[in-house]
Amino acid sequence: MEYKDYYKTLGVDKSADQKTIKKAFRKLAKQYHPDLHPDDKKAHEKFKEINEAYEVLSDPKKKQTYDQFGSAGNFSGGMNFDPSQYGYTYTTTGGSGDFSDFFDMFFGGGSASAGSKRRSTTFNMGDIFGDFKGSRRAHKPQRTQYSAELSISMDDAYHGVERQVSLTIGGKAVDIPVKVPAGITEGKKLKVRGEKFGVDGDILFKIHVTSPKGVEIHGLDLIVDQAIYPWQAYFGDKITCDLPAGKLRITVPEKTKGGQKLRLAKKGLKDLKGRTGDAYIRFVLVNPDNLSAEDEALYKQLSEKYKK
Fold this sequence. Notes:
- By secondary structure, the protein is α+β, with helices and mostly antiparallel strands.
- 29% of the residues lie in helices and 27% in strands.
- The chain has 9 helices and 13 strands.
- The strands form 5 sheets. A 4-stranded mixed β-sheet has the order 8-9-13-12. Strands 3-7-6 form a 3-stranded mixed β-sheet.
- The radius of gyration is 32 Å and the shape is elongated.
């Protein structure tokens, strides 16, 4: 079995007092907390190690047992040893995985020695983050998480929307209401607590924002194709454009060329921090679907006139 150096895990000296141990734990827990790293397995494992070390070193009785064993064997972190040589017998009982076999040998159900009852430690986010105000709930070191994807329109991303999503989790069909906030952007993730829907964990929805035909999304900026007739391009005109920010009346400059862009400041998409991008209207020259005989004659006359 591998010896766990809990002092090294928390980065404290063996002579550290409880205040120093707690301060070290709070700093590391803030750095590696799963809420801040929902998809980082290494961070989750690191948080479990920090949690386990603090579980032992913050409890005077556990700390005494741990220190006595470490001193007797003169162990260092990562060293392997045979528990039976030290009077311990250990049989794994298949626990929750929140603590190591080393911890369970001394303090958990697999131990035939210490006799102390294992308690599962939970931490209030406010305790870890000090002035963090977002949560009052206790957080277990590891929660089951399910991943799903949710596609929404560009307008829904701008204004916000509530969607009813049907999923199959563990062979069971569930309907999950997802409130998408205004300003969500591509790739962001929304977490939904699954307990109230009969799901044993959290569901992380990765957001995909789809754009309509003729619209390109570049971060918070938009490029919007706007069709205009040749005479509008030549003489200029006032037209209406549809954008997520609303319908806008714009001026087509005289002698506009196909592909030319008109910048509309702060009329693009927005994000959750209130930042707003720009919209670029890209003019596309088109012909009417139907022309009268008189109009066709005018077109033909122009065509003949400007033949090279």
